[in-house]
Amino acid sequence: MILVTGATGNVGSPLVKQLFEQGAPVRAGVTSPQSVSRLPNPAIPWAVLNFEEPQTFAAAFEGVDRLFLLRPPQTSNVERGMKPLIDYAFSVGVRHIVFLSLLGAENNNIVPHAKVEELLLAGPAAYTLLRAGFFMQNLSTTHRLDIAEHNDVFIPAGKGKTAFVDTRDLAAVAALALTEPGHENKAYPLTGSESLDYYEVAAILSEVLGRRIIYSDPSPLRFAWKLHQRGEPWAFVAVTSAIYMTTRFGMAAAIHPQLATLLGRPPLTLRQFAIAEAQVWQK
Length: 283
What we know:
The chain is α/β, with parallel strands linked by helices. It is 39% helix and 13% strand. The chain has helices at 12-22, 57-61, 78-81, 83-91, 112-122, 144-150, 167-179, 198-209, 220-229, 234-248, 258-263, 270-277; strands at residues 2-4, 26-30, 46-48, 66-69, 96-102, 126-132, 161-162, 186-190, 196-197. Strands 3-2-1-4-5-6-8 form a 7-stranded parallel β-sheet, sandwiched between helices. The chain has a two-stranded antiparallel ribbon with strand order 7-9. Helix 1 (12-22) crosses helix 7 (167-179), helix 8 packs across helix 12 and helix 9 runs antiparallel to helix 10 (234-248). The model has no long low-confidence stretch (mean pLDDT 95).
């Protein structure tokens, strides 16, 4: 049995869909019964799983031997917010954990992904670390409002380039790692095939949407304050800002070939993503 955390999110949703359609034994971890309606197929088995509620662990992990692990976006304190679940997975004999990490996490102790990687490397289960570049889907979720309402890619990345990756490609790699041998104790840097700055991103969105989209390049402080004003907790703001600092300093620009090698096809491009998601940025 494969347990997928974050099963209604950008990566977890296409992952449970693919595993279910392949006939793999999969269980979707959801935060509440109400969120089940957001699963891609109502027939997918599910269980309530909350990282900070250990009473939900037993039912979710029943019979599980493989785990797809995703950091909840609001979690910055790994010791409190993720370690109990990881320890529980070890204790019930989960033999393989596939973790959606962050590109460069092994060299960046500021981000919580680095602490999770340390826990997995020290644990008894096999691991696969998917060190992902910046999600294209962040543009259609976290930053959707600024683009839709203000025609602005409001991100504090300076002139830094990003090798964007589509979460559907990440889900496809995760499915391979969870169902095929040979991915144990490996770390894969995963990016798309093009490295773009946010001026180029704005130009692509302008062309696809048929209206002018700008990249205002706000200061890190202005970005953090605006995010907090929208109701985001400071812990989330801090982690998000730290991730963008890596872009600002040129640490997100490198293109890696592993995703194309693993999937046997080119990664999806930002233009393909924008065309597919165009409706979400309408006012």
